[in-house]
Protein backbone atom coordinates (compact mmCIF):
# COMPACT_ATOMS: atom_id res chain seq x y z
CA UNK A 1 0.00 0.00 0.00
CA UNK A 2 1.05 3.57 -0.58
CA UNK A 3 2.31 5.45 2.51
CA UNK A 4 0.38 8.11 4.39
CA UNK A 5 2.10 11.36 3.50
CA UNK A 6 1.99 14.41 5.75
CA UNK A 7 2.88 18.03 5.15
CA UNK A 8 5.85 19.76 6.72
CA UNK A 9 3.55 21.66 9.06
CA UNK A 10 2.12 18.35 10.28
CA UNK A 11 5.64 17.08 10.87
CA UNK A 12 6.47 20.19 12.91
CA UNK A 13 3.32 19.71 15.00
CA UNK A 14 4.28 16.05 15.56
CA UNK A 15 7.77 17.04 16.76
CA UNK A 16 6.36 19.66 19.11
CA UNK A 17 3.88 17.22 20.66
CA UNK A 18 6.42 14.40 21.02
CA UNK A 19 9.05 16.64 22.59
CA UNK A 20 6.49 17.86 25.12
CA UNK A 21 5.46 14.28 25.89
CA UNK A 22 8.94 12.82 26.38
CA UNK A 23 10.95 15.81 27.58
CA UNK A 24 8.35 18.11 29.15
CA UNK A 25 8.29 16.45 32.60
CA UNK A 26 12.08 16.51 33.01
CA UNK A 27 12.46 12.73 33.06
CA UNK A 28 14.75 12.85 30.00
CA UNK A 29 17.71 15.19 29.60
CA UNK A 30 17.60 17.73 26.75
CA UNK A 31 20.90 19.62 26.41
CA UNK A 32 21.59 22.87 24.56
CA UNK A 33 23.52 21.03 21.83
CA UNK A 34 20.33 19.23 20.81
CA UNK A 35 18.69 22.48 19.72
CA UNK A 36 20.88 22.70 16.61
CA UNK A 37 19.63 19.30 15.42
CA UNK A 38 16.01 20.21 16.16
CA UNK A 39 16.32 23.48 14.28
CA UNK A 40 18.00 21.93 11.22
CA UNK A 41 15.16 19.48 10.68
CA UNK A 42 12.48 21.97 11.74
CA UNK A 43 13.40 24.22 8.79
CA UNK A 44 14.07 21.38 6.28
CA UNK A 45 10.97 20.56 4.26
CA UNK A 46 11.09 17.00 2.85
CA UNK A 47 7.35 16.59 2.32
CA UNK A 48 7.72 16.19 -1.49
CA UNK A 49 9.84 13.06 -1.16
CA UNK A 50 7.00 10.64 -1.91
CA UNK A 51 5.82 12.70 -4.88
CA UNK A 52 9.33 12.52 -6.38
CA UNK A 53 9.58 8.75 -5.72
CA UNK A 54 5.99 7.79 -6.45
CA UNK A 55 6.95 5.62 -9.42
CA UNK A 56 9.06 3.39 -7.14
CA UNK A 57 6.07 2.42 -4.94
CA UNK A 58 3.35 -0.17 -5.53
CA UNK A 59 -0.32 0.02 -4.56
CA UNK A 60 -0.17 -3.57 -3.35
CA UNK A 61 1.54 -5.19 -0.40
CA UNK A 62 1.95 -3.99 3.18
CA UNK A 63 1.60 -0.33 4.09
CA UNK A 64 4.78 1.65 3.44
CA UNK A 65 6.46 4.14 5.74
CA UNK A 66 6.51 7.73 4.55
CA UNK A 67 9.79 7.99 2.56
CA UNK A 68 10.27 11.53 3.88
CA UNK A 69 10.69 10.09 7.39
CA UNK A 70 13.23 7.53 6.19
CA UNK A 71 15.20 10.17 4.29
CA UNK A 72 15.02 12.49 7.29
CA UNK A 73 16.26 9.72 9.57
CA UNK A 74 19.18 8.92 7.26
CA UNK A 75 20.20 12.59 7.13
CA UNK A 76 20.01 12.71 10.93
CA UNK A 77 22.30 9.67 11.04
CA UNK A 78 24.84 11.57 8.95
CA UNK A 79 24.49 14.69 11.11
CA UNK A 80 25.37 12.74 14.27
CA UNK A 81 28.31 11.08 12.44
CA UNK A 82 27.03 7.51 12.67
CA UNK A 83 28.42 5.44 9.73
CA UNK A 84 26.52 2.18 10.35
CA UNK A 85 22.86 1.62 9.43
CA UNK A 86 22.61 -1.26 11.91
CA UNK A 87 23.93 0.82 14.78
CA UNK A 88 21.67 3.70 13.77
CA UNK A 89 18.60 1.46 14.09
CA UNK A 90 19.75 0.65 17.62
CA UNK A 91 20.17 4.34 18.41
CA UNK A 92 16.65 5.07 17.19
CA UNK A 93 15.37 2.53 19.69
CA UNK A 94 17.50 3.92 22.52
CA UNK A 95 17.18 7.68 22.03
CA UNK A 96 13.70 9.28 21.85
CA UNK A 97 15.08 12.50 20.34
CA UNK A 98 16.48 10.73 17.27
CA UNK A 99 13.20 8.88 16.69
CA UNK A 100 11.13 12.06 17.10
CA UNK A 101 13.27 14.18 14.73
CA UNK A 102 13.09 11.36 12.17
CA UNK A 103 9.30 11.51 12.32
CA UNK A 104 8.74 8.20 14.16
CA UNK A 105 7.00 7.60 17.43
CA UNK A 106 9.41 6.40 20.08
CA UNK A 107 9.22 2.60 20.25
CA UNK A 108 7.86 2.30 16.70
CA UNK A 109 10.99 2.81 14.64
CA UNK A 110 11.84 0.86 11.45
CA UNK A 111 14.39 -1.93 11.17
CA UNK A 112 17.50 -2.34 9.04
CA UNK A 113 15.65 -3.99 6.17
CA UNK A 114 13.23 -1.07 5.89
CA UNK A 115 16.10 1.35 5.37
CA UNK A 116 17.73 -0.80 2.70
CA UNK A 117 14.41 -1.21 0.91
CA UNK A 118 14.14 2.57 0.86
CA UNK A 119 17.68 2.92 -0.55
CA UNK A 120 16.77 0.56 -3.40
CA UNK A 121 13.86 2.84 -4.29
CA UNK A 122 16.41 5.63 -4.75
CA UNK A 123 18.44 3.51 -7.17
CA UNK A 124 16.92 2.85 -10.60
CA UNK A 125 19.12 -0.07 -11.59
CA UNK A 126 18.53 -3.80 -11.33
CA UNK A 127 21.88 -4.34 -9.57
CA UNK A 128 23.51 -2.44 -6.73
CA UNK A 129 26.69 -2.29 -8.85
CA UNK A 130 27.09 -1.23 -12.47
CA UNK A 131 29.77 -3.73 -13.52
CA UNK A 132 29.67 -7.53 -13.39
CA UNK A 133 31.49 -9.14 -10.50
CA UNK A 134 33.34 -11.50 -12.83
CA UNK A 135 36.14 -9.69 -14.67
CA UNK A 136 39.81 -9.89 -15.53
CA UNK A 137 42.48 -8.91 -13.04
CA UNK A 138 44.04 -5.57 -13.94
CA UNK A 139 47.62 -4.39 -13.88
CA UNK A 140 48.77 -1.97 -11.22
CA UNK A 141 48.94 1.69 -12.17
CA UNK A 142 52.17 3.62 -12.33
CA UNK A 143 52.32 6.23 -9.59
CA UNK A 144 53.73 9.72 -9.68
CA UNK A 145 55.57 12.03 -7.32
CA UNK A 146 54.22 13.23 -3.99
CA UNK A 147 52.27 16.48 -4.24
CA UNK A 148 52.71 16.73 -8.01
CA UNK A 149 49.76 16.91 -10.37
CA UNK A 150 49.47 13.94 -12.66
CA UNK A 151 50.29 14.64 -16.31
CA UNK A 152 47.18 15.71 -18.15
CA UNK A 153 45.73 12.98 -20.32
CA UNK A 154 46.88 13.07 -23.93
CA UNK A 155 44.82 15.59 -25.87
CA UNK A 156 43.88 12.93 -28.40
CA UNK A 157 42.39 10.71 -25.67
CA UNK A 158 40.27 13.55 -24.24
CA UNK A 159 39.18 14.61 -27.73
CA UNK A 160 38.27 11.02 -28.61
CA UNK A 161 36.27 10.68 -25.39
CA UNK A 162 34.34 13.87 -26.21
CA UNK A 163 33.69 12.62 -29.74
CA UNK A 164 32.39 9.29 -28.40
CA UNK A 165 30.11 11.02 -25.91
CA UNK A 166 28.70 13.24 -28.65
CA UNK A 167 27.49 10.12 -30.47
CA UNK A 168 25.55 8.97 -27.41
CA UNK A 169 22.32 10.42 -26.13
CA UNK A 170 22.91 13.00 -23.42
CA UNK A 171 19.53 12.13 -21.89
CA UNK A 172 20.54 8.55 -21.10
CA UNK A 173 19.06 7.69 -17.67
CA UNK A 174 21.51 7.18 -14.82
CA UNK A 175 20.89 4.91 -11.80
CA UNK A 176 21.17 7.89 -9.44
CA UNK A 177 18.63 10.11 -11.24
CA UNK A 178 16.03 9.70 -8.46
CA UNK A 179 18.58 10.75 -5.86
CA UNK A 180 19.62 13.68 -7.99
CA UNK A 181 15.97 14.68 -8.41
CA UNK A 182 15.50 14.72 -4.63
CA UNK A 183 18.67 16.75 -4.25
CA UNK A 184 17.67 19.25 -6.92
CA UNK A 185 14.05 19.79 -5.91
CA UNK A 186 14.37 19.87 -2.11
CA UNK A 187 17.87 21.25 -1.56
CA UNK A 188 19.43 23.01 -4.55
CA UNK A 189 16.23 24.90 -5.33
CA UNK A 190 15.95 26.12 -1.73
CA UNK A 191 19.61 27.18 -1.60
CA UNK A 192 19.26 28.98 -4.94
CA UNK A 193 16.19 30.87 -3.71
CA UNK A 194 18.13 31.89 -0.60
CA UNK A 195 20.98 33.17 -2.76
CA UNK A 196 23.47 30.69 -1.32
CA UNK A 197 24.68 29.45 -4.73
CA UNK A 198 25.44 32.83 -6.22
CA UNK A 199 23.82 33.98 -9.43
CA UNK A 200 22.27 30.89 -11.07
CA UNK A 201 22.04 32.84 -14.35
CA UNK A 202 25.84 33.21 -14.36
CA UNK A 203 27.23 30.42 -12.22
CA UNK A 204 30.89 30.08 -11.37
CA UNK A 205 31.52 26.36 -10.98
CA UNK A 206 34.67 24.81 -9.56
CA UNK A 207 35.40 21.15 -10.16
CA UNK A 208 37.85 18.78 -8.57
CA UNK A 209 38.25 15.11 -7.72
CA UNK A 210 39.25 13.40 -4.50
CA UNK A 211 40.14 9.78 -3.69
CA UNK A 212 37.44 7.74 -1.96
CA UNK A 213 39.01 4.69 -0.36
CA UNK A 214 36.53 1.88 0.32
CA UNK A 215 38.95 -0.86 1.39
CA UNK A 216 42.62 -1.29 2.24
CA UNK A 217 43.14 -3.79 -0.56
CA UNK A 218 41.41 -5.27 -3.60
CA UNK A 219 38.67 -7.71 -2.61
CA UNK A 220 38.56 -10.57 -5.08
CA UNK A 221 38.51 -14.35 -5.23
CA UNK A 222 40.52 -16.44 -7.65
CA UNK A 223 38.85 -18.89 -10.00
CA UNK A 224 42.06 -20.29 -11.49
CA UNK A 225 44.84 -22.51 -10.13
CA UNK A 226 47.70 -20.28 -11.29
CA UNK A 227 49.00 -19.88 -7.74
CA UNK A 228 49.32 -23.66 -7.32
CA UNK A 229 51.21 -23.76 -10.62
CA UNK A 230 53.69 -21.15 -9.38
CA UNK A 231 52.23 -18.01 -10.99
CA UNK A 232 51.42 -15.55 -8.22
CA UNK A 233 50.38 -12.55 -10.36
CA UNK A 234 48.11 -13.75 -13.16
CA UNK A 235 45.51 -11.89 -15.21
CA UNK A 236 42.79 -14.53 -15.14
CA UNK A 237 39.15 -13.90 -14.34
CA UNK A 238 38.31 -13.23 -10.68
CA UNK A 239 35.16 -12.50 -8.68
CA UNK A 240 35.20 -8.98 -7.21
CA UNK A 241 32.99 -7.98 -4.29
CA UNK A 242 33.30 -4.32 -5.37
CA UNK A 243 33.34 -4.56 -9.18
CA UNK A 244 32.99 -0.81 -9.78
CA UNK A 245 36.11 -0.04 -7.74
CA UNK A 246 39.70 -0.28 -8.91
CA UNK A 247 43.17 0.95 -7.98
CA UNK A 248 44.03 4.63 -8.15
CA UNK A 249 47.01 6.80 -7.27
CA UNK A 250 46.74 9.36 -4.47
CA UNK A 251 49.43 11.97 -5.23
CA UNK A 252 48.83 13.83 -1.95
CA UNK A 253 49.44 10.77 0.28
CA UNK A 254 51.90 9.25 -2.21
CA UNK A 255 50.28 5.82 -2.24
CA UNK A 256 47.85 3.59 -4.10
CA UNK A 257 44.28 3.23 -2.90
CA UNK A 258 41.33 1.00 -3.76
CA UNK A 259 37.95 2.58 -4.25
CA UNK A 260 36.36 5.36 -6.28
CA UNK A 261 37.25 8.75 -7.67
CA UNK A 262 34.69 11.27 -6.36
CA UNK A 263 34.39 14.23 -8.70
CA UNK A 264 32.25 17.17 -7.51
CA UNK A 265 31.03 20.42 -9.04
CA UNK A 266 30.86 23.14 -6.38
CA UNK A 267 29.28 26.60 -6.52
CA UNK A 268 32.40 28.77 -6.44
CA UNK A 269 30.51 31.91 -5.37
CA UNK A 270 28.90 30.11 -2.43
CA UNK A 271 30.07 31.34 0.96
CA UNK A 272 29.34 27.86 2.35
CA UNK A 273 31.12 25.90 -0.43
CA UNK A 274 27.93 24.08 -1.42
CA UNK A 275 28.14 21.09 -3.80
CA UNK A 276 26.09 21.09 -7.00
CA UNK A 277 26.76 17.76 -8.66
CA UNK A 278 28.75 14.93 -7.01
CA UNK A 279 29.66 12.04 -9.30
CA UNK A 280 31.36 8.72 -8.56
CA UNK A 281 33.98 7.59 -11.09
CA UNK A 282 36.51 4.77 -11.15
CA UNK A 283 39.59 5.40 -9.01
CA UNK A 284 41.88 5.04 -12.02
CA UNK A 285 40.23 7.91 -13.87
CA UNK A 286 42.10 11.16 -14.32
CA UNK A 287 40.54 14.46 -13.23
CA UNK A 288 40.29 15.67 -16.82
CA UNK A 289 38.42 12.52 -17.90
CA UNK A 290 36.03 12.76 -14.94
CA UNK A 291 35.38 16.42 -15.76
CA UNK A 292 34.41 15.61 -19.36
CA UNK A 293 31.83 13.06 -18.19
CA UNK A 294 30.47 15.26 -15.39
CA UNK A 295 30.28 18.41 -17.54
CA UNK A 296 28.20 16.70 -20.21
CA UNK A 297 25.80 15.24 -17.65
CA UNK A 298 25.59 18.53 -15.77
CA UNK A 299 24.62 20.46 -18.91
CA UNK A 300 21.70 18.10 -19.51
CA UNK A 301 20.44 17.79 -15.93
CA UNK A 302 20.80 21.44 -14.90
CA UNK A 303 19.17 23.29 -17.77
CA UNK A 304 17.83 26.00 -15.46
CA UNK A 305 21.37 27.03 -14.52
CA UNK A 306 23.61 29.09 -16.80
CA UNK A 307 27.28 28.20 -16.60
CA UNK A 308 29.43 31.34 -16.86
CA UNK A 309 32.87 30.45 -15.43
CA UNK A 310 34.78 27.19 -14.95
CA UNK A 311 37.44 27.16 -12.20
CA UNK A 312 39.77 24.16 -12.55
CA UNK A 313 43.25 23.18 -11.43
CA UNK A 314 46.26 22.28 -13.55
CA UNK A 315 45.09 18.67 -14.04
CA UNK A 316 42.44 20.03 -16.44
CA UNK A 317 44.87 22.01 -18.56
CA UNK A 318 43.99 20.35 -21.86
CA UNK A 319 43.12 22.03 -25.15
CA UNK A 320 39.91 19.97 -25.80
CA UNK A 321 38.50 21.20 -22.47
CA UNK A 322 39.16 24.81 -23.46
CA UNK A 323 37.52 24.22 -26.83
CA UNK A 324 34.48 22.64 -25.15
CA UNK A 325 34.07 25.64 -22.84
CA UNK A 326 34.71 28.17 -25.60
CA UNK A 327 31.99 26.61 -27.76
CA UNK A 328 29.50 27.09 -24.89
CA UNK A 329 30.58 30.65 -24.00
CA UNK A 330 32.00 29.57 -20.63
CA UNK A 331 35.05 31.48 -19.44
CA UNK A 332 37.88 29.10 -18.45
CA UNK A 333 39.99 29.81 -15.38
CA UNK A 334 42.39 26.87 -15.51
CA UNK A 335 45.81 26.83 -13.91
CA UNK A 336 48.77 26.29 -16.19
CA UNK A 337 50.31 22.80 -16.10
CA UNK A 338 54.01 22.95 -17.09
CA UNK A 339 53.95 19.20 -17.79
CA UNK A 340 51.34 19.69 -20.50
CA UNK A 341 51.89 20.97 -24.01
CA UNK A 342 49.48 22.87 -26.17
CA UNK A 343 51.21 25.89 -27.70
CA UNK A 344 53.28 24.06 -30.30
CA UNK A 345 53.07 25.61 -33.72
CA UNK A 346 51.43 28.82 -32.44
CA UNK A 347 53.26 31.68 -34.13
CA UNK A 348 52.41 35.04 -35.59
CA UNK A 349 54.95 36.19 -38.13
CA UNK A 350 58.19 36.74 -36.18
CA UNK A 351 56.43 37.02 -32.78
CA UNK A 352 57.01 34.39 -30.12
CA UNK A 353 54.85 33.72 -27.06
CA UNK A 354 55.45 32.96 -23.43
CA UNK A 355 53.99 29.75 -21.92
CA UNK A 356 51.04 31.82 -20.67
CA UNK A 357 50.28 33.31 -24.11
CA UNK A 358 51.89 36.76 -23.80
CA UNK A 359 53.77 37.84 -26.98
CA UNK A 360 57.40 38.95 -26.88
CA UNK A 361 58.70 41.86 -28.93
CA UNK A 362 61.94 41.60 -30.89
CA UNK A 363 63.89 42.77 -27.84
CA UNK A 364 62.54 39.83 -25.84
CA UNK A 365 60.21 41.94 -23.64
CA UNK A 366 56.63 40.96 -22.83
CA UNK A 367 54.21 43.22 -24.67
CA UNK A 368 51.60 45.24 -22.76
CA UNK A 369 47.99 44.06 -22.53
CA UNK A 370 45.49 46.58 -23.89
CA UNK A 371 42.34 44.56 -23.12
CA UNK A 372 40.02 41.97 -24.62
CA UNK A 373 37.44 42.60 -27.33
CA UNK A 374 34.56 40.20 -26.64
CA UNK A 375 32.77 41.12 -29.88
CA UNK A 376 35.73 39.87 -31.95
CA UNK A 377 37.10 37.36 -29.48
CA UNK A 378 40.61 38.79 -29.48
CA UNK A 379 43.12 40.45 -27.15
CA UNK A 380 45.32 43.37 -28.15
CA UNK A 381 48.95 43.83 -27.12
CA UNK A 382 51.20 46.83 -27.85
CA UNK A 383 54.85 47.79 -27.53
CA UNK A 384 56.18 47.59 -23.95
CA UNK A 385 58.44 50.63 -24.51
CA UNK A 386 55.64 53.11 -25.22
CA UNK A 387 55.50 55.88 -22.59
CA UNK A 388 52.64 58.40 -22.82
CA UNK A 389 52.10 57.72 -26.49
CA UNK A 390 55.80 57.94 -27.37
CA UNK A 391 57.89 54.97 -28.46
CA UNK A 392 61.13 54.99 -26.46
CA UNK A 393 62.65 51.99 -28.24
CA UNK A 394 65.91 52.72 -30.10
CA UNK A 395 65.01 50.20 -32.80
CA UNK A 396 61.22 50.52 -33.25
CA UNK A 397 59.61 47.84 -35.38
CA UNK A 398 56.63 50.03 -36.40
CA UNK A 399 55.91 53.65 -37.34
CA UNK A 400 52.77 53.68 -35.19
CA UNK A 401 52.85 55.96 -32.09
CA UNK A 402 51.93 52.87 -30.05
CA UNK A 403 54.59 50.78 -31.67
CA UNK A 404 53.76 47.41 -33.06
CA UNK A 405 50.40 45.88 -32.05
CA UNK A 406 49.63 42.16 -31.90
CA UNK A 407 46.18 40.55 -31.74
CA UNK A 408 45.67 37.10 -30.30
CA UNK A 409 42.43 35.26 -31.12
CA UNK A 410 40.84 32.89 -28.62
CA UNK A 411 39.43 30.65 -31.36
CA UNK A 412 42.95 29.96 -32.66
CA UNK A 413 44.07 28.48 -29.35
CA UNK A 414 41.67 28.83 -26.37
CA UNK A 415 44.28 27.35 -24.04
CA UNK A 416 47.01 29.84 -24.89
CA UNK A 417 44.73 32.84 -25.46
CA UNK A 418 41.79 32.59 -23.01
CA UNK A 419 39.32 35.51 -22.73
CA UNK A 420 40.73 36.41 -19.30
CA UNK A 421 44.52 36.54 -19.36
CA UNK A 422 46.35 34.40 -16.83
CA UNK A 423 47.89 36.23 -13.87
CA UNK A 424 45.80 39.32 -14.56
CA UNK A 425 44.00 40.95 -11.63
CA UNK A 426 40.64 39.62 -12.84
CA UNK A 427 42.02 36.10 -13.28
CA UNK A 428 43.57 36.05 -9.80
CA UNK A 429 40.43 37.46 -8.20
CA UNK A 430 38.21 34.77 -9.74
CA UNK A 431 40.62 31.85 -9.48
CA UNK A 432 41.19 32.22 -5.75
CA UNK A 433 37.69 30.79 -5.26
CA UNK A 434 38.75 27.46 -6.82
CA UNK A 435 39.78 26.19 -3.37
CA UNK A 436 36.08 25.92 -2.55
CA UNK A 437 36.37 22.33 -3.85
CA UNK A 438 38.97 21.45 -1.21
CA UNK A 439 36.82 22.89 1.54
CA UNK A 440 33.75 21.01 0.31
CA UNK A 441 35.71 17.75 0.14
CA UNK A 442 37.08 18.38 3.61
CA UNK A 443 33.59 18.74 5.00
CA UNK A 444 32.48 15.49 3.38
CA UNK A 445 35.52 13.51 4.53
CA UNK A 446 36.18 14.94 7.98
CA UNK A 447 32.96 16.53 9.22
CA UNK A 448 30.66 13.78 7.92
CA UNK A 449 33.15 10.87 7.92
CA UNK A 450 32.59 9.92 4.29
CA UNK A 451 35.11 7.07 4.24
CA UNK A 452 34.04 5.61 7.61
CA UNK A 453 31.22 3.53 6.10
CA UNK A 454 31.74 -0.15 5.26
CA UNK A 455 29.59 -0.32 2.13
CA UNK A 456 30.44 -2.66 -0.73
CA UNK A 457 28.06 -1.41 -3.41
CA UNK A 458 28.02 1.63 -5.67
CA UNK A 459 24.37 2.16 -4.72
CA UNK A 460 25.14 2.68 -1.03
CA UNK A 461 28.19 4.86 -1.67
CA UNK A 462 26.12 7.04 -4.02
CA UNK A 463 23.35 7.36 -1.43
CA UNK A 464 25.91 8.33 1.20
CA UNK A 465 27.55 10.95 -1.02
CA UNK A 466 24.23 12.60 -1.88
CA UNK A 467 23.11 12.41 1.75
CA UNK A 468 26.25 14.27 2.83
CA UNK A 469 25.68 16.88 0.10
CA UNK A 470 22.14 17.37 1.45
CA UNK A 471 23.52 17.82 4.97
CA UNK A 472 25.93 20.48 3.73
CA UNK A 473 22.99 22.48 2.39
CA UNK A 474 21.05 21.95 5.63
CA UNK A 475 23.98 23.33 7.62
CA UNK A 476 24.05 26.41 5.38
CA UNK A 477 20.31 26.99 5.96
CA UNK A 478 20.89 26.62 9.70
CA UNK A 479 23.61 29.28 9.64
CA UNK A 480 21.41 31.65 7.64
CA UNK A 481 18.26 31.16 9.72
CA UNK A 482 17.37 33.71 12.39
CA UNK A 483 14.55 31.62 13.85
CA UNK A 484 14.68 31.40 17.66
CA UNK A 485 13.29 27.89 17.87
CA UNK A 486 14.08 27.29 21.54
CA UNK A 487 11.96 30.29 22.63
CA UNK A 488 9.16 29.22 20.28
CA UNK A 489 8.92 25.67 21.59
CA UNK A 490 9.57 26.48 25.23
CA UNK A 491 6.81 29.09 25.22
CA UNK A 492 4.46 26.53 23.71
TrEMBL record:
InterPro entries: Transposase_11. Residues 246-471 form the Transposase IS4-like domain. Pfam families: DDE_Tnp_1. This is Transposase. It comes from Alicyclobacillus fastidiosus.
Amino acid sequence: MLPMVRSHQQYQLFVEQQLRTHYGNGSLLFVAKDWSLVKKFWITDLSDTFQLLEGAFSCRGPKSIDPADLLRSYLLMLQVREPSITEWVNQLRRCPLYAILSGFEYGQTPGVGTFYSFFKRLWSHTSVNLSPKLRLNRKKLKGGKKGEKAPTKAYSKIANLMAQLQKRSANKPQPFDRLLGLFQQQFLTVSANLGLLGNTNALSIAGDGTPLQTATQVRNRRLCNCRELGTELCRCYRIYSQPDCDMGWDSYRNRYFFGYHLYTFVAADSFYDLPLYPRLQRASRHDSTSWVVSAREFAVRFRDYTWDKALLDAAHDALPIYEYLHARNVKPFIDWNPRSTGNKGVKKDDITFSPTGVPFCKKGLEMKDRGYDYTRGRRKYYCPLVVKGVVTCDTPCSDSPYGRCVHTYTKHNPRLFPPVARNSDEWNEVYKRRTTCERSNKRAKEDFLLEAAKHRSTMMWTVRIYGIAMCQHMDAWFQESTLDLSSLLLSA
